[in-house]
Specification:
FAD/NAD(P)-binding domain, 11 helices, globular
Length: 405
């Protein structure tokens, strides 16, 4: 591979960065991916909805991903807040939308491994498994210096380097951040009863307790609770922790056993003030961070990538370069509505669980009852939860996008 300046440099080799590099290299842009494939926190899995599945199909990696993933056919919500207005359990089924599945759940490291393997054999994609030492952005374009000393002047630099993004900082992009009085315990558990491809979410006074199916009789856990309790749970002996998880899950999946390392994630959020400009674009957690509620994080990050691809292809079709200001402005505008909508929805849901105000409990319970009994509203909520109603980027609209069997 030539060491000439690339058209596009992607900084960050997590799932979003790998996806961006693969996507743009396949479109004919000389692309450089900077970074080592990122390892997630222990016990992290990612739930991918239909549009993300279609995107992975278009990248040619879906067969390898699906072999390591479990489909999600139903999503069950159980109010465990003790509220006087607690509604009965609510179950959303993929068949209600005419789908074979809502999507799939896969360990994050497995997904990163599949994408990294594809990156190593993709023409037009150069790999630089190192870090960026210096970066600057101006109207003249980005300038990068790698840890090896190699200097670069790509036309476009894509920041996929996470919540502490160097690209975002060097580009002078401010952020809005917020914290919650919570932390999330994550891990993978086996159980004696089948999950039947159903994700179950208990709403508690300290946050959601969610079990998401994995292949076989295994599920991934995201238990949002008080930070001190999350740390105490993570420090318990595996047998004691498994028993606590089993009891919190009301033994719905039978006896449970810890099958891997557990981790604790602080609950916080972040949104960049802008997502692009001056030869720079942000994707994934460099642009927005969510608490692990509602499975929105990586699905939004992949929509960032697919939307940026659409903007760059449109610029090329009209004879413009990949750093075209109008294309980057269009990307910024288009992603802001989707991200803002998801941010507010997740924030409202989480904060509604933390309050004990009767009025909030009543409104939450009434909303759940309405979803349980008004079919058009249920279908609208399911569709909006899976993808924005205003449409998906082109690569997420492939035939069979929501049929990931």
């Amino acid at each position: 591979m030539s060491h000439a300046d690339p058209d596009i440099a992607v900084i960050g080799a997590g799932a979003a960065g790998l996806a961006a590099a693969l996507c743009l290299a396949r479109e004919g842009f000389h692309t450089l991916l900077i970074g080592d494939p990122a390892i997630a926190a222990p016990g992290r899995t990612v739930a991918l909805f239909g549009g993300s599945v279609a995107f992975l199909q278009a990248l040619g990696v879906w067969e390898a991903v699906s072999a390591r993933a479990a489909p999600m056919d139903a999503m069950r919500i159980i109010d465990d807040t003790g509220s006087l207005f607690a509604p009965p359990p609510l179950t959303f089924r993929c068949a209600e939308l005419g789908l074979d599945s809502f999507g799939c759940n896969i360990p994050n490291d497995d997904l990163v491994g599949v994408l990294a393997a594809q990156a190593r054999q993709t023409p037009g994609l150069e790999l630089a498994p190192e870090t960026v030492a210096e970066a600057s952005f101006s109207p003249a374009g980005p300038q990068l210096v790698l840890a090896s000393g190699r200097a670069l002047r790509p036309r476009l630099a894509i920041g996929a380097d996470g919540g502490r993004s160097l690209v975002r900082a060097r580009a002078g992009v401010g952020v809005r951040t917020w914290d919650y009085p919570q932390a999330a315990l994550t891990g993978v558990f086996s159980h004696t009863q089948p999950h039947r491809n159903t994700s179950t979410e208990f709403h508690t006074r300290h946050g959601p307790f969610t079990l998401v199916p994995l292949p076989g009789k295994r599920s991934s856990l995201v238990w949002v609770t008080e930070p001190g309790k999350a740390r105490r749970l993570a420090g318990r002996a595996p047998e004691a922790l498994a028993l606590e998880v089993e009891q919190q899950a009301r033994s719905m999946l039978g006896a449970m056993r810890v099958t891997g390392p557990c981790g604790v994630i602080p609950m916080r959020g972040l949104t960049a003030e802008r997502f692009a400009g001056h030869g720079m674009a942000l994707v994934g957690e460099a642009a927005h961070m969510f608490p692990p509620i509602g499975a929105q994080g990586l699905n939004l990050g992949l929509r960032d990538v697919a939307a940026l691809r659409d903007a760059l292809i449109a610029a090329r079709d009209r004879g413009a370069r990949c750093d075209d200001a109008d294309a980057l402005a269009a990307y910024d505008r288009g992603r802001r509505l989707d991200v803002t909508t998801r941010t507010r929805a997740i924030d409202a849901l989480n904060r509604s669980l933390l309050t004990r105000l009767p009025g909030v409990d009543f409104l939450r319970g009434a909303g759940m009852l309405a979803l349980g009994h008004i079919r058009p509203l249920r279908r609208l909520a399911m569709r909006e939860g899976l993808a924005p109603l205003l449409g998906l980027p082109a690569m997420m609209q492939a035939d069979g996008a929501s049929r990931p069997r």
